[in-house]
């Protein structure tokens, strides 16, 4: 891909076209990876309360800060846990173990230096053994049917911000799409902790985070309108829904 400000190689599509193509591919897989938004009421029968999820999200954030994990790792771990809880009822101990297995597995997929089993044995103060974690990891994999690359709000936000590239100068001053993506992902971090957003596809939530980011960066209205036109051209499957 050509660097910013550099001419495109012969036949190379603009960056915004590549982002749109990848975004279309992402939304095609959203239904496969979506958890049940009502799993707390419909699935959980062993004592899970509404407070458990926010607490484990805060713990994920603490791990992210302490071990410099990628935001995408935390988003993937959250997806794994929500999908697991959409199929398996958990008590307090099994919920904690499933949470650990989720972040452990996500780190293997996304991080260059993933967690080791011994790390979580230590972090759990001996509550869980290495064998406990390995067995739960296997159960998690089977429950998720080995579908381990979920479309996340963070991934969609990056692609949506990429649609800002190559917007004609006539639309207004250039907007730094990377700054917009960073701000959108910061909003996505907050969204991750709120189970109410499970009602919506990740790409729909991502559109909202980018709109908030554009507003926060005082993007010119003409640029925002040009960006919205590009989003419409992607033809997101829910674009005509009443609450879209």
UniProtKB/TrEMBL annotation:
What does the UniProt keyword field contain?
A: Cyclin
Key word Lipid biosynthesis present: no
The keyword Disulfide bond appears for this protein: no
Q: Where is the Cyclin-like domain?
A: 58-142
The record's annotation in InterPro entries points to: Cyclin, Cyclin-like_dom, Cyclin-like_sf, Cyclin_N
What PANTHER family does the annotation carry?
Answer: CYCLINS
Family, according to the entry, reads as follows:
Belongs to the cyclin family.
Q: What is this protein called?
A: Cyclin-like domain-containing protein
The organism is: Pelagomonas calceolata
